[in-house]
Specification:
The protein has about 80 residues and is mostly beta strands. It contains 1 helix and 7 strands.
């Protein structure tokens, strides 16, 4: 079974799982903290970017952090 492949800056990268959805912070709803979750890498980290970040820097977090602090708002 082959892994999903995404293109990052023109380079194909194999990933464990593709998310491509928005999550909202559970406790900071008044600030409208939204993140765009892209994929899960082979190290088990979730790769995301903050929607308010104009530089679109990719950041990492664990599954526990994602599902403890955020809820999905768009698939």
């Amino acid at each position: 079974m082959s892994n999903p492949v995404i293109s990052v800056r023109g380079e194909p990268i194999e990933v464990r799982k593709i998310f491509n959805c928005l999550f909202e912070h559970e406790t900071k709803k008044e600030l409208k903290e939204l993140i765009h979750v892209w994929y899960e890498d082979f190290d088990g980290y979730i790769v995301y970017e903050e929607c308010t970040d104009c530089l679109q820097q990719k950041r990492k977090m664990t599954h526990v952090e994602l599902f403890r602090d955020y809820k999905r708002v768009w698939e």
